[in-house]
Amino acid sequence: MLKARNLEAGYGPLRVLKGLSLHVAPGEIVAIIGANGAGKSTLLGSLAGLVRPTSGSVTLRGEDVTGSRPERMLAAGCSLVPEGRKLFAPMTVRENLELGGYSVRRRLGRKAFEEDLAGVFELFPRLGERQGQLAGTMSGGEQQMLAIGRSLMSRPELIMLDEPSMGLAPLVIKQIFSAISALRSRGKTVLVVEQNAKAILKIASRGYVMETGSLVLEGTGQELLANRDVQRAYLGKEYSSIADEREGR
Ligand SMILES: Nc1ncnc2c1ncn2[C@@H]1O[C@H](COP(=O)(O)OP(=O)(O)OP(=O)(O)O)[C@@H](O)[C@H]1O
Ligand SMILES: [Mg+2]
Question: Ligand 1: which of 7, 8, 11 to mutate, judged by most atoms within 8 Å of the beta carbon?
C-alpha cells in the first residue's frame, strides 16, 4: 500500500529523517514507537505531504507520490489524524464531520455521506449523541474520537494516526485502541505513532522502532514486545526488571 525508500526530510538546516525506509501492506496495523524528538511526527508529515522530503521516495499503491501536497494525498486515500487533533474548535461535532466528508458528498452524493456518518456514529456512539456540541468543549477522549471520525469521513484506505492516546485516561485509551482494531476489521490500513508502546504493539501486525531519524528495529508486534532492548527502553519498569533478572542483574 505505502512504501518509503531512503526518505530524508527536515526543517531548514535541521536534518530530521536520515534516510529511512518502511512499508505498510494493505490491512496491516503498523506501529512506530520511539522517544520524544526522534522524528516520528516528521515522518508521518512527510508521508502525508505536510513536510517535503529532501530525498528518497514515497509510493502509494505503486504510484510515486513523493512531495505530493496534503490535498492530493487525501484524494489518493491517505489521511492523517495529526498530533493534538487539530479540530475546528468553534464548530460542532456534526460540522467537523461534514467538513471531513465534503469531498465524498460532492463526488458520491448525500446518501454516501449519510452512510459514512452512520458508520462513524456506530464506531463512536458518543459522537452521535453529541452532534450539536462544539468540538472545543468535548473532552480529550471525545476530541480524539472526533478527529478519527473526521478522518474516516474522507473514506481513506490508509489512515495515519499521530499519538492518538496522548493525554488520555487509561479507560479512554482502551476505547481508542479498540477503535483502531475496529478500523482494521473495516478494511482500513493503519500506520500509527504511539508512546504507549505496550498497548499498540499488542494490536499491531508489525512495528518499527525509531531513534533520532532512523528506523533501528522492525518486527511483528509480538517480536517487539519480546525484544529486550524494546522492553528496557519503551515498556517501562515492570519489563525492564524482568529483563534485568533474566540477565542476573
Ligand atoms: N516545524 C518545525 N520546524 C522546525 N523544527 C521542527 C519542526 N517540527 C519538528 N521540528 C524538530 O524536528 C525534530 C523531530 O521532531 P518530531 O516532532 O518529528 O519528533 P517526534 O518523534 O514526533 O517527537 P514527539 O514524541 O515529542 O512528538 C525535533 O528536533 C523538533 O524540534
Ligand atoms: Mg510527535
Answer: 11
